[in-house]
Amino acid sequence: MTLDRRDFVRTLGAGALVLTVAPDARAATALTFVTPFGFLVGYAEVLCAKSGGHFAKQGLDVTIYGGRGAATAVQQVLSGQALLSRTGGGDLMRAVVNQDAPLLSVATVVQGSPFFLVSKKGQAILTPKDMVGKTIGIISKGGAVDNLLDVMLINNGIDAKTVNREVVGNSPGAFGLIEQGRIQAFVISTGSYVSLKMSGAPIEAWNTDRFAPIPGQILMTSKAAAEKDPETIVKFLRAVDAAMVEVLNDKDLDKTMGLLRGYEIPEMKDLPAAKEGLRAELVEWTSAGEKNRLRHVPERWQTARDLMAKAGLMKPGPADVCYTNKYIDQARA
Q1: CATH number at residue 252
Q2: Sheet of strand 217-222, all strands in order from the earlier edge strand to the far edge
Q3: Residue at a domain's end among 210, 236, 269
Q4: 9 Cβ partners below 8 Å, 6+ apart?
Q5: Are residues 141 and 243 in the same domain?
Q6: pLDDT band at residue 183 under the 50/70/90 scheme
Q7: Contact 277, 144 (CB under 8 A)
Q8: In this structure, are 169 and 155 located in the same domain?
Q9: Is 16's pLDDT higher than 80?
Q10: Which residues, including other chains, have CB under 8 Å from residue 283's CB and lie 6 or more apart?
Q11: In this predicted model, what pLDDT tens digit does every residue of 61-111 receive, in sequence order?
Q12: Longest dimension (CA), the chain
């Protein structure tokens, strides 16, 4: 059975959001992008590229689907149901190195870590050594945060088994578990950290990049798709790059918030918090320098693979098997 575009979007689920921007969409190249988890303000580079008309200017008709987990997003890309998706740099590296997954990172959106370790003032956990004998809250068992803890501990000469873990999800509400004495710290994403900070809770927090500098969030595709249709990848990145420049120049973020209103983003219910959460993300867009916006920084990737190899998460070797700057360089040529 052949599905038309409307039927295909329906099969992806109710999370799919299609915004019609180009009047000549029939002549445009159609493709699907899958987010890792629903719609978040942190995905502004792609969401604003759509609603701001940047994809349309490149002759692309992009359907953005709110995914239901990083693993599902990877499956969609590998199966050809989606051309591109976004995931953590460390997650992609493990998939490529350990599972020989034919994936390729074509751009780094968030250079640094999107995770913060949070503890209580007066009882702060400031270093990996402070975690010994403590219970740390993690988002999920065996997930990115769990692996980050291993990297931070083992690379600081600490047996990972000396630190207990408890799954607490990715919510500011986990701070209540610290006050109850069930955990002594927990790791959450940037948006949740900003919400907790704005609530006035007595927290001490630091970015996990301090002890585990691993590439944050990247844009990935399959190697087969990149080889088959490099022109579309280049156009996609050119549009995303233009959207990022527009957002970075939007000092009060009012225009950006307007572009994001067309998506079902839970964070948008609290506009001040949404803005602060996005500002925290924007810092990492250019944390490796303006010239490296969307580019992979080879030294950072190699350091990440070396750290993860030492932690036993993968075998050692060159990191450049996981990424290329070819397409973003062509997008800016």
Answers
A1: 3.40.190.10
A2: 16-17, 60-65, 29-34, 84-88, 217-222, 103-110
A3: 210
A4: 16, 18, 63, 65
A5: no
A6: very high
A7: no
A8: yes
A9: no
A10: none
A11: 999 999 887 778 888 999 999 999 999 899 899 999 999 999 999 999 999
A12: 63
Name the residue with tokens 């010239």.
Answer: 291
At residue 259, what are phi and psi to the nearest 5 degrees?
A: -70, -25
pLDDT digits (tens, 9 = 90+) for 293-306: 999 999 999 999 99
> Do 35 and 147 belong to one domain?
no
On the 0-12 / 13-18 / 19+ scale of CB atoms within 10 A, 157 is: exposed
Q: Cα dist. 93→107, 218, 223, 291, 311 in Å?
A: 13, 11, 14, 24, 14
Which range of residues forms the domain containing residue 319?
A: 5-112+215-332
pTM: 0.85
The rounded distance, in Å, linking the Cα atoms of 81 and 254 is: 34
Q: Does an H or E element contain 96, and which?
A: helix 89-99
The per-type count for the chain, helices as H runs and strands as E runs, is 14, 11
**DSSP structure string for 279-333:** HHHHHHHSTT-GGGTB---HHHHHHHHHHHHHTTSS----GGGSB-SHHHHHHH-
Please classify residue 265 by burial: count the beta carbons closer than 10 Å to its beta carbon, then call 0-12 exposed, 13-18 middle and 19+ buried. buried
User: Given its phi and psi angles, is residue 132 left (phi above 0), alpha (psi -120 to 50 degrees) or beta?
Assistant: beta
pLDDT band at 26; cut points 50, 70, 90:
low
Can you read off the two tokens belonging to residue 221? 């595709």
Joined tokens for residue 190: 């940037």
Res 89: pLDDT:
92
Q: How far apart are the first and last CA of the chain?
A: 41
Cα–Cα distance, 131 to 110 (Å, whole number): 27
Q: Of 41, 139, 70, nearest to 147 (Cα)?
A: 139
